[in-house]
Amino acid sequence: MSAHYIDTPQQLDELCRQLRHHDWFTLDTEFLREKTYRSRLCLLQVANPEVIACVDPLALEDLSPLLDLLYDPAITKVLHAAHQDLEIFFEMRGEVPAPIFDTQIAATLLGHGEQIGYGNLVKIELGIELEKAHARADWCRRPLDDAQLTYAADDVRHLREVYLSQRRQLEELGREQWLQADFDELTDPARYRNPPEQAWLRVKGSNRLKGVQLAVLQALAGWREEQAQQSDRPRRWILKDEILLDLARQMPQEPGKLHRIRGLEEGTVKRHGDTLLRLIDEAKNLPKAQWPKAKGGKRLAPEQEPLVDAMMALLRERCRRQNISPGAVAGRRELEQLVMGERDIPLLHGWRAAIAGGALQQLLEGRLALLVENGQLDIIHRE
């Protein structure tokens, strides 16, 4: 089946008519974000059993007919690694398309490990080796050549067969409902909002700061986020993470001290120096109760470390029996949280609880035990 190139309103209307014939379609996007805060949508690919199409948003002034289908609750949108694609539509309409099916997430329940790439999944499921030559193409440049359009169309062409195969496998394993909570989480608008007051949490290295330094970082990162949003420029073009960390660590109080911050350009000091000094001063004078709390929280007591080791062994054994990657269920940090009494964690909800979370909780309560028999780890229930 050849792909259609859609660049007129009439073609778009006909495509949408064909897409309505089924209760699902596959979806992918090509976009650029290297020079902007928000992703620039350059191409939108869709397919169902009867049509494959590449829709050109640069040629079409109004995508409403297709967007209406994306937000139709009666139609499932099938994507691979959906977060970035869904973020684009959230920015366009302020809400997230639903319902969705993410083949990358489904692959974790089918024994393909964590965050498998689309090309590897297609090779495993369909035995097809995908072309990679256009992975770094400039999708905003026009005209697109035939090879680019074929590459883009293949992303949704083969996704149809992958989706149908995964559905069959999940049904055979009785796991078709296990993923719903994960899919629902992907459509939560809160995932795609970037409130400035929480921007400090995304600064790499923030865990090395403490006390009032975190208050300064929160103020500076929030200001940077607002600047990036308003100018539609990448955060790093405003101030790099390492500069934010140095400003929060050193807390300069006068213009001359700003010049001692490595990497802080003269132009930035001229434009924003007064603002940076004001933000630092205001944050330094906040009451301690208003300082943000450092990431990481409580630490394990020494006697709890062996317990986490035992839980990790149980997790691995449970996942081995279900042919699922342990890392897709929980990491060591989540086991530590469980040992320290936290219960509102993904491990104790949905399919993760069914695979291992419930058993891990029973181990903590003394209702399960680990036993070595004939050189193998066994799990036994205790009265």
- Report the order of strands and helices: EHEEEHEHEHHHHHHHHHHHHHEE
Helix content: 40-55%
> What order do the strands of the largest sheet run in, or round the barrel if closed?
1-4-3-2-5-6
Integer-rounded radius of gyration: 25 Å
Major beta sheet summary? 6 strands, mixed
- Note the beta-strand portion: 5-15%
Question: Which stretches are low in confidence, meaning pLDDT under 50 for 5 or more residues running?
Answer: none
The mean pLDDT is 94
The overall strand count is 8
CATH topology of the largest domain: Nucleotidyltransferase, domain 5
Number of helices: 16
- The separation of the N and C termini measures 61 Å
Fourth-tier CATH superfamily name of the largest domain:
Ribonuclease H-like superfamily/Ribonuclease H
Structural class: alpha/beta
Based on the coordinates given, report the CATH architecture of the largest domain: 2-Layer Sandwich
What's the number of structural domains?
3
Observed structural traits:
single chain, 383 residues, alpha/beta, Nucleotidyltransferase, domain 5, DNA polymerase, domain 1, 3 domains, two-stranded antiparallel ribbon, 16 helices, 8 strands, 47% helix
